């Protein structure tokens, strides 16, 4: 109320002063701003003298102490932003952090009457900055950080492990480089990790697949490593490793814990070896894409048990054997550019002949003909009871 009164007095003063000047100078130009209630240009020096006082007072008033703590962190980050084509940071002024573009406030979980900076959504802002260090890692209550499609570079600070509430981290489609940020392994609340479309190199620590993540997107980086054996040890629902250089076979126990997975994207890597028949136990799978790898051997009949599947892509590999043709008829299974006799759009005879000339065989050959969902108690892979040792 008192602020309103101050403004009213201030405005009245301005108008009177303007009218006085207008009466003296009587120029057409000065009369126009008066109609719209704006400060006439001629009194600008007076306004300039008053304005800093008003702004300073406003800057000091934070609705919560927590916001006054993150204020300098945000302002320091703003200073290192080198490009902001959409003018986002223009809104990052004053004490009302909760109204800054991209910033969202909420009550922290430990005090429901406090107000804190809870999430950041910079998606598509096209900001350039040399680093997120000294920014993201200094936002103690942050729960969501989404910053896809910017031009952030550098590496990720190991201090992000100290953010107890951060559960969604999306830094996809930026210019981050260096090894996988291992600090991520120490993040206690993380359930969604998206670092795709960056330039990370080296290998992903196998412990990542033991974290309790719902979604893991690490596609379109430059990771080069054997597909970890413990892949099936996670409870991931969306797993995307596409467009890297993962090699080695798809692990046999993939279905152990991944039984709730709905999307698996392995395409465009260097995976090799035979498909495990246990893939047929990925009951919730909607998309399984292992296209453009170097996988070989038969395509197990067990895939016919994937009741929810809509896309099964095995195109561009070296598959040769049995196949559940009904999946092709349904338009679900794509096996073009393999070496499967009797099917259209396969690799050239020459290419396939060269491949078959090298002796290869898959273990548990009989398993390729099993259809586990036809067996009693179809729930987990009954491998031990069903399969004899590798017949070769
Ligand atoms: C919760 O937050 C409010 C507002 O910041 C504060 O006044 C109060 O002391 C806090 N309560 C506790 C238990 O920390
Ligand atoms: C199938 O499940 C039933 C009931 O749970 C159980 O009695 C039976 O032994 C199981 N059969 C096999 C082959 O595991």
Describe this structure in words.
Keywords: Repeat, Secreted, Signal. It comes from Heracleum sosnowskyi. It is found in: Secreted. This is Leucine-rich repeat, plant specific. With 392 residues, the protein is an alpha/beta fold. The chain has helices spanning 2-25, 28-35, 44-60, 65-80, 325-329, 349-357, 383-386; strands at 103-106, 116-121, 128-129, 144-146, 151-154, 168-170, 175-179, 192-194, 199-202, 215-217, 222-226, 238-240, 245-248, 263-265, 270-274, 287-289, 294-297, 311-313, 318-319, 333-334. It has seven helices and 20 strands. Strands 1-2-4-6-8-10-12-14-16-18-20 form an eleven-stranded mixed β-sheet. Strands 3-5-7-9-11-13-15-17-19 form a nine-stranded parallel β-sheet, with no helix packed on it. The chain is elongated. The protein starts with a helix and ends in a 6-residue tail after the last helix. Residues 13-55 and 382-392 have low confidence and may be disordered. The structure holds 2-acetamido-2-deoxy-beta-D-glucopyranose (2 copies).
Rg over CA atoms, rounded to whole Å, is: 30 Å
Specify the structural class.
alpha/beta
Strand order of the largest sheet: 1-2-4-6-8-10-12-14-16-18-20
Share of helix, binned: 10-25%
Low-confidence stretches: 13-55, 382-392
Q: What is the helix tally?
A: 7
Ligands: 2-acetamido-2-deoxy-beta-D-glucopyranose
**Average predicted local confidence, pLDDT:** 83
Please state roughly what percent of the residues sit in beta strands, choosing from under 5%, 5-15%, 15-25%, 25-35%, 35-45% or over 45%.
15-25%
Q: Looking at the structure, what is the overall shape?
A: elongated
Report how far apart the termini are: 86 Å
Protein name: Leucine-rich repeat, plant specific
Keywords: Repeat, Secreted, Signal
Subcellular location: Secreted
Pfam families: LRR_1 (PF00560)
């Amino acid at each position: 109320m008192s602020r309103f009164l101050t403004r009213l007095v201030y405005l009245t003063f301005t108008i009177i002063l303007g009218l006085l000047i207008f009466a003296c100078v009587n120029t057409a130009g000065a009369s126009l701003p008066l109609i719209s209630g704006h400060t006439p240009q001629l009194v600008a020096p007076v306004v300039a003298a008053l304005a800093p006082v008003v702004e300073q007072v406003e800057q000091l008033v934070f609705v919560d102490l927590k916001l006054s703590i993150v204020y300098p962190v945000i302002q320091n980050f703003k200073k290192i932003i080198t490009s902001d084509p959409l003018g986002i940071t223009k809104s990052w002024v004053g004490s009302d952090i909760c109204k800054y573009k991209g910033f969202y406030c909420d009550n922290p979980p430990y005090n429901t009457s406090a107000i804190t900076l809870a999430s950041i959504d910079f998606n598509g802002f096209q900001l350039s900055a040399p680093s997120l260090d000294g920014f993201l890692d200094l936002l103690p209550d942050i729960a969501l950080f989404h910053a896809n499609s910017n031009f952030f570079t550098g590496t990720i600070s190991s201090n992000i492990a100290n953010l107890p509430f951060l559960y969604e981290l999306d830094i996809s489609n930026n210019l981050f480089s260096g090894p996988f940020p291992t600090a991520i392994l120490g993040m206690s609340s993380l359930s969604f990790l998206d670092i795709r479309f960056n330039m990370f190199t080296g290998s992903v620590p196998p412990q990542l697949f033991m974290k309790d993540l719902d979604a893991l997107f690490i596609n379109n980086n430059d990771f080069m490593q054997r597909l970890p054996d413990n892949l099936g040890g996670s409870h991931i629902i969306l797993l995307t490793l596409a467009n890297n250089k993962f090699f080695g076979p798809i692990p046999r126990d993939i279905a152990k814990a991944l039984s709730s997975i709905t999307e698996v994207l392995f395409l465009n890597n260097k995976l090799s070896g035979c498909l495990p028949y246990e893939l047929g136990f990925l009951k919730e799978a909607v998309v399984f894409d292992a296209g453009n790898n170097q996988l070989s051997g038969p395509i197990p009949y067990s895939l016919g048990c994937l009741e929810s599947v809509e896309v099964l892509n095995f195109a561009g590999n070296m598959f040769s054997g049995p196949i559940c043709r009904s999946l092709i008829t349904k338009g679900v299974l794509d096996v073009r550019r393999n070496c499967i006799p009797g099917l259209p759009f396969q690799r050239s005879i020459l290419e396939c002949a060269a491949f078959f000339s090298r002796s290869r065989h898959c273990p548990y050959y009989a398993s390729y003909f099993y259809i586990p969902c036809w067996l009693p108690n179809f729930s987990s892979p009954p491998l031990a009871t069903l399969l004899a040792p590798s017949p070769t």
